[in-house]
Amino acid sequence: MKIQELIDLGRKHAFSAIAEKIYLTTGLDFTRPIAFYGLVNERCNFKCQSCSSWRLEHYAEEMSIAEWQAALLSIKDFVGNFSISFSGGEPLLKPGMIDLLSWCGHNDIRAGITTNGSALTRANAEKIVAAHPFNVNLSLDAPNAELHDRLRGFAGSYQKVTDGIGYLLEERKRQNGSFPIVIKPTVNVKNFRLIPELVEWAAAFGDLCVSPQPMGGWTQEATDLLWIKGQEIDELEVVIEKLVQMRREGAPILAPEANLRRMADHFRGKKAPRSAMPCLVGLRNFNIRTNGDVGVCYDGFPSIGNLRTQSAREIWHSKKARQVRKATVACEKLCLTTCQSQKSLRNKVEMALLLLKRSRSVKS
Q1: Does the pTM of the predicted model rise above 0.85?
Q2: Where are the alpha helices (DSSP H) in the chain?
Q3: Largest Cα–Cα distance in the chain?
Q4: Residue 18's CB: how many other CB atoms inside 10 A?
Q5: DSSP assignment, residue 224?
Q6: H/E run at residue 186
Q7: Are strands 285-288 and 293-295 parallel, antiparallel or unpaired?
Q8: DSSP-based three-state secondary structure for 14
Q9: pLDDT digits 0-9 by tens, 218-254
């Protein structure tokens, strides 16, 4: 991650903030998508207790790498240079995924990836770093193997992800790379007390950031066994205040303070507070499904088009997109997952500065 990249993104986010204000006050729609997410597959080799991907009987149709390239060029034709975060399933299980990251780098598209770390061999880490990623996010739920492996349903997963982090740090240093490595724990009743320890673990391990986000009620197992309830929410609030203090003292916690503090209300099932309204995902998000369907929010809202048959520009300006944007602005759900959480321009600047600070290994 380079300063010029952040400056370019800053300009786009500033324009987006102005366009959002105009839309909310006048109804005139000058918005353009600013946050791009690509779900490349549903297939996953882990059996996380909180996830439904591995339970699916049939996987959704997937776009080929060539179709992804065409879709990304369509977006670039619409908005210019942009950044996108790829995920799955487990995206590194998709043949050609690392080649797609490399292709993005050669076409001035800033691409990041979220992975469970199972495929982060030394050879793959070398290729990923050579692709000049915008960021690499790794799912890690605890600072120890026993709990992480149990939550992820895969024996040895902790060792795989920690080995992978080591390979990435080594290659980033060797290749003089510049990108942040972000640890993303899914907060639940089994691990919330250990999140401060995980932050300390990450700080000691290397130049890593931590971005905790609460689990969603994605499966019956999640709500029955992993949801934080009753008096334990009071304990969660104590942990959150510790995280806030650690963040203020310089700990590499990426989530804004407001989002950390809203985590307790998420588990209480409360609506979004007035300070988090209105929801802006419909004015800024462009979420691409495995089959090319595009949405601004898939939590109860329909797709607005498909990149296999329409251009990004046509999709964003379509009648369907305008209808969904209007509906999302009125939504009162409290969402704290990465693609849905509310972040002010100030939050984005703070996050960018932390990512910049943690994006480069110092050569000895």
Answers
A1: yes
A2: 3-26, 65-79, 97-106, 122-130, 145-152, 157-174, 195-205, 220-221, 231-248, 257-268, 281-284, 312-316, 319-329, 345-357
A3: 56
A4: 13
A5: I
A6: strand 186-187
A7: antiparallel
A8: helix
A9: 788 888 899 999 999 999 999 999 999 999 999 999 9
